[in-house]
Automatic annotation (TrEMBL), chain A:
<keyword id="KW-0813">Transport</keyword>
<dbReference type="InterPro" id="IPR001020">
    <property type="entry name" value="PTS_HPr_His_P_site"/>
</dbReference>
<feature type="domain" description="HPr">
    <location>
        <begin position="1"/>
        <end position="88"/>
    </location>
</feature>
<keyword id="KW-0762">Sugar transport</keyword>
<keyword id="KW-0963">Cytoplasm</keyword>
<dbReference type="InterPro" id="IPR000032">
    <property type="entry name" value="HPr-like"/>
</dbReference>
<dbReference type="InterPro" id="IPR050399">
    <property type="entry name" value="HPr"/>
</dbReference>
<protein>
    <recommendedName>
        <fullName>Phosphocarrier protein HPr</fullName>
    </recommendedName>
</protein>
<comment type="function">
    <text>General (non sugar-specific) component of the phosphoenolpyruvate-dependent sugar phosphotransferase system (sugar PTS). This major carbohydrate active-transport system catalyzes the phosphorylation of incoming sugar substrates concomitantly with their translocation across the cell membrane. The phosphoryl group from phosphoenolpyruvate (PEP) is transferred to the phosphoryl carrier protein HPr by enzyme I. Phospho-HPr then transfers it to the PTS EIIA domain.</text>
</comment>
TrEMBL record, chain B:
<dbReference type="GO" id="GO:0016301">
    <property type="term" value="F:kinase activity"/>
</dbReference>
<dbReference type="InterPro" id="IPR008731">
    <property type="entry name" value="PTS_EIN"/>
</dbReference>
<feature type="domain" description="Phosphotransferase system enzyme I N-terminal">
    <location>
        <begin position="5"/>
        <end position="125"/>
    </location>
</feature>
<dbReference type="GO" id="GO:0046872">
    <property type="term" value="F:metal ion binding"/>
</dbReference>
<dbReference type="InterPro" id="IPR036637">
    <property type="entry name" value="Phosphohistidine_dom_sf"/>
</dbReference>
<keyword id="KW-0460">Magnesium</keyword>
<dbReference type="InterPro" id="IPR024692">
    <property type="entry name" value="PTS_EI"/>
</dbReference>
<feature type="binding site">
    <location>
        <position position="331"/>
    </location>
    <ligand>
        <name>phosphoenolpyruvate</name>
    </ligand>
</feature>
<keyword id="KW-0762">Sugar transport</keyword>
Length: 89, 572
């Protein structure tokens, strides 16, 4: 399954927001990818995510395959909203 | 027994074992391996050890310094466990090379990738990757990493130099003092030692080569001496000295809550220099009469973008509230020179101290400057704020900065913000041109603050960081004294006051000269406040003044020093 998110964190998906997301998804079993500007990276990889350099205001796609994908998306949405990183769109 | 002489920068005597901060030897060879499975296991074991180590450090750092400063280690843990990085390294090992080589190759690849990104934050992550791969490499090679965060007994740090990031984690529970090869009275590490109130000796040139890790050391920060493997006679002499030093400190405590007055009742202000809001507590504890210099660079450093108006406002307000109506002088941003802000993308310069820095940047990048001015104006309602501009060289610069200040004041006032009626606007005197025409500036400013560190540097054309010319860094040089006198006289003629916020303001030889010249405010490290108040209480301004003309006629710094010792410090 996949969902689109708009990144609202003023610094984009760098530093703190990236670390928060990676930390949140790491415990899940399923594979999870972040796609930005037609390039996909492992959302469990802090270096992969930061190397994407997602700018504030841009749209990213997150896709996940696996048994706990539904729960994973719940967690992602929660972290995005509560930490002011982004919102579903 | 070995004696080493350096520059005394922070008073006190410490006894402890040497803790040498040396880069460990992490060299290795590329080796073809046959047992891939064993090599993978060896790599995984090193990762596990590094993880345990980082978790431990993270926890200690959290307890000692709070979550914010400890966050760096959480970031290191994420890098260590990064699945992309681990997979790449394991793939390399599977192709038949040793783990050390695979780790190095992969981390260099990531470093190159991050360095290529046009984003300062990413470039900073390079340091994280280097740090983590160094730790793993050390475990692979079985080399012990020196870790200041895991101290369990008293030590004296011995290092080539202490960088700001190293000192951020300095724990004075165990760090009893430090010794560095390079540096001088005004270097980072020296200022830090005085802030932490631990003895320090810098500029020893080769302490790191001559002191063995673990060797027992006596550190005399008052006289700049280091004794390694002291004999019992020498030890007991220094124990006596330490007792005297402690007694002296006790005695000084009586000066905590009395006004700063000379022996003949002339009132001065003895204030503290601070670099962040927390330092204000130390000034209050030392009984300071105010803050003579609040450096605002901390707000801008170690981050990725400019601080907002609100962030700045909160920082200024918190200091003003702590100071409870005591004067607090904030210096507007003094960046450039040796302090860079990566996100401003300032070009490298041939002569940074003569280049694009301080007010020169503020007047060019006005939006940044206006944000700071607005934050200061809003904060002014919460205490006794004064503002000063750094590195003013021409009258036009001061007038421009003042005009911006007035514009913002006008606009905030019409928006209904309460702004202090008594907010004074002054300037630093650091450049000889400003000192020489101080009479012209005196009509425009509310006060002067003489920044002697730079004023000496610019007057004698001496780079204060360059050890080869350090003999020229002469606070008592007649030219420096004449400039100071010119500034004080110009201010007095226009009914303005003058402070000093360089190291010279707490110098025992300089004090009687400055008091005689009529300096009003002395601002220094919190740890020097009580000593200076006690010193001034023994000096009489009336008796010092007749010496002014004679002092100004002396021809060398050493003549000045001798004159003060023979004539001023011995006055009844």
């Amino acid at each position: 399954m996949k969902k689109m998110f708009k990144i609202t964190a003023p610094e984009g998906l760098h530093a703190r927001p990236a670390a928060l997301l990676v930390t949140a998804v790491t415990p899940f079993e399923c594979d999870v990818q972040l796609t930005y500007k037609e390039k996909s990276v492992n959302l469990k990889s802090i270096m992969g995510v930061m190397a994407q350099g997602v700018a504030p205001g841009s749209i990213v796609e997150i896709s996940a395959e696996g048994p706990d994908a539904e729960k994973l998306f719940q967690t992602i949405t929660e972290v995005m909203v509560s930490k002011g990183i982004g919102e579903e769109c | 027994m070995l004696e080493i002489q350096g520059i005394a920068v922070s008073r006190g005597i410490a006894f402890a074992n040497a803790y040498c901060l040396k880069e460990p030897d992490l060299t290795f060879e590329e080796v073809k391996i046959t047992d891939v499975h064993a090599e993978l296991e060896r790599f995984k074991a090193a990762i596990v050890k590094t993880k345990t180590e980082l978790q431990e450090i993270h926890e200690i750092a959290q307890q000692k310094f709070g979550a914010e400063k400890a966050a760096i280690f959480a970031a290191h843990l994420l890098v260590l466990e990064d699945p992309e990085m681990l997979a790449s390294i394991e793939a390399k090992i599977q192709s038949g090379v040793n783990a050390e080589f695979a780790l190095d190759e992969v981390s260099n690849m990531f470093i190159a990738l991050f360095e290529g990104l046009d984003n300062v934050y990413m470039q900073e992550r390079v340091a994280d990757i280097r740090d983590v791969s160094k730790r793993v490499l050390a475990h692979l090679l079985g080399v012990e990493m020196v870790d200041m965060n895991r101290l369990t007994s008293d030590v004296i740090i011995v290092a080539k130099d202490l960088t700001p990031s190293m000192t951020a984690m300095l724990d004075t529970t165990y760090v009893k003092g430090f010794i560095t090869d390079i540096g001088g009275k005004t270097s980072h590490s020296a200022i830090l030692a005085r802030t932490l109130e631990i003895p320090a000796v810098v500029g020893t040139k080769n302490a790191t080569e001559n002191i063995q890790h673990g060797a027992p050391i006596i550190l005399d920060g008052t006289n700049g001496k280091i004794i390694v493997n002291a004999t019992s006679e020498v030890s007991s002499f220094y124990m006596q000295q330490q007792r005297l030093h402690n007694e002296e400190n006790e005695e000084l405590l009586q000066y905590r809550s009395i006004p700063s007055l000379s022996a003949d009742g002339f009132s001065v202000e003895i204030a503290g220099n601070i670099g962040n809001p927390e330092d204000a507590d130390m000034v209050i504890n030392a009984g300071g009469d105010g803050i003579g210099l609040f450096r605002t660079e901390f707000l801008y450093m170690e981050r990725q973008e400019l601080p907002t108006e609100e962030e700045q406002f909160q920082a200024y307000k918190s200091v003003l509230e702590k100071m409870q109506g005591k004067p607090t002088i904030v210096r507007t941003l003094d960046i450039g020179g040796d302090k860079n802000l990566p996100y401003l993308k300032l070009a490298d310069e041939m002569n940074p101290f003569l280049g694009y820095r301080a007010i020169r940047i503020s007047l060019t990048q006005q939006e940044m400057f206006r944000v700071q001015i607005r934050a200061l104006l809003k904060a002014s309602a919460y205490g006794n704020l004064k503002i000063m501009f750094p590195m003013i060289a021409t009258l036009d610069e001061f007038k421009m900065a003042k005009a911006i200040f007035l514009e913002e004041k006008q606009s905030l006032t019409s928006d209904g913000f309460p702004i202090s009626e008594t907010l004074e606007v002054g300037m630093m005197i650091e450049i000889p041109s400003a000192a020489i025409i101080a009479d012209l500036f005196a009509k425009e400013v509310d006060f002067f603050s003489i920044g002697t560190n730079d004023l000496i540097q610019y007057t004698l054309a001496v780079d204060r960081m360059n050890e080869n010319v350090s003999y020229l860094y002469q606070p008592y040089h007649p030219a420096v004294l004449r400039l100071i006198k010119t500034v004080i006289d110009a201010a007095q003629n226009h009914g303005k006051w003058v402070g000093m916020c360089g190291e010279m303001a707490a110098d025992e030889i300089a004090l009687p000269i400055l008091l005689g010249f009529g300096l009003n405010e002395f601002s220094m490290s919190a740890s020097s406040i009580l000593r200076t108040r006690a010193h001034i209480a023994k000096l009489s301004k009336q008796q010092l003044m007749p010496h002014n003309e004679r002092i100004l006629q002396l021809s060398t710094a050493s003549e000045v020093e001798e004159y003060v010792k023979n004539n001023l410090l011995s006055l009844p």
